Each structure stands twice: as C-alpha cells, then as structure tokens.
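User: Hello! I'm new to structural biology and keep hearing that structure can be predicted from sequence alone. Could you demonstrate with (Fe-S)-binding protein? Please show me the input and the output so I can see what each looks like.

Assistant: Of course. The first part below is the input, the amino acid sequence of (Fe-S)-binding protein. The second part is the output, the predicted structure written as tokens.
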Amino acid sequence: MRVGLFVPCYVDQFYPGAAIATLQLLEKLGVDVVYPKNQTCCGQPMANSGYEHLTGGCNKLFIENFQGFDYIVSPSGSCVLHIREHLHDDKQPELAKEVAHQVWELTSFLTDVLKVESLPSRFPHKVGVHQSCHGQRGLHLSSMTELVAPGFSKPGSLLNMVKDLELVELDRKDECCGFGGTFCVVEEAVSSKMGKDRVADHLRQGAEYITGADMSCLMHMEGILKRQGSNVKVLHIAEILNSQ
C-alpha cells in the first residue's frame, strides 16, 4: 500500500519527533510512506473559531497534496476528525469526499488496517494514557466510561505490546484535559484548571510519562507540568511504539 503522511502544522513546528517516529514506525511495518512537501495547515483552528468559510485554500491544498493515496495517516486525532468531517471543495465535491474517506489516525490505522499484533519495541517506564476527546468521541479510539458496554482502547492495546512498559490505571480514564484548540485561548482559566486536574490524576498514579494520540493535548499538559516543576514528561504514542 502507498500511504501519504499528513503532519499537522503544530507537530511540524513544535514536535517533529512525533512525525519522524510515525514515519519510522510505518516503514518498519512494511508501509510505503510518502510525505507531500507542500502540505500545510488543515484549517482546523479557523474552523474551530467559527471561520470555516475561510478554509477554502486549506481544503484545496490538502486535496492537491493527498489525492491518489491508498491511505492518508496522521499522528493527530483532532486534525484527522476535522478532515473527515469538514473537508470539502465546491468544484470537486466527490474528490474531496474520496480524499476525506482515506484519512486515518495512526493508532486506528495500526489496529484496524494493518491489524498489528506485536511490536519489537521496549519502553521500561510507567505510562499514563490520555484519551483525547476528538479521538475518543469522534474517532472512537477508545470506549467511554459512561457507557454500559465492553471497554476498549486502541492506543492501550498497542502500548500493551511494548516490552517492559507499565500502564497506570487512572481514576478518570476519559476526562478532558481542557485544551480544546482555541478554547484554551478564549477560556484560559477554565482550560488551565481542567489541565491541572488531568495532570494530577496521572501524578497520583505514579506515571513517569503521559502519552496519547494527540500532541496538542500533550502540549497543554506539558506546559502545566513544566510550570509545576514536575519531572514527568509527555511523549506521543508513536515515539513509544517506535522505541527500542
């Protein structure tokens, strides 16, 4: 299969290690990965702020860069969900729909498409998993605790394949971290308090690392951890799954 690697702008600018780990991990699993060099922002920040009518250029460029791939894979659930639900082009509506249908979040692609059952990775640390809202409630990467149904977690199942890694059990498995994209700007105090509560849960369980499938949420919690002087680190799940 031929896969287009979609790297969100904030990952490209602030956490390139997550993108590199995604590329290396996919290649280790035998995937032919191509990185379209002209890609840029998917338009989610504008859409979240009520300006989706200004994302036409982002939509057009995304379609130009990613049409023709068997799959499009990204290490960001929120950006994937935005593309899946909002990518459109009035001049090429069917092509836009086709491209949007090919976009996958990394952990979902590994479990549902590649059907990975083992990994040659090792990470000897206690790890807490943050289930981001976009991934959990939009992409169904994990179950919601309020539902009376069998529990599952695609990120968790992959992390359980990593040698010497210990997953910690959180008190509130699917609580929002408060980032919410532009929400953390317009509702700074609420966002900060939610983030502190989310971080505190991981700290109570003795986590050495906090991981997840959305670097934006991890970035929010990383800022809180640094301001608290904590030694706990954040790491995108791709970097753990790619570790040796």
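User: So the tokens describe the shape?

Assistant: Right, they're a compact way of writing down the 3D structure. Reading them back into a model, for example: The mean pLDDT is 95.
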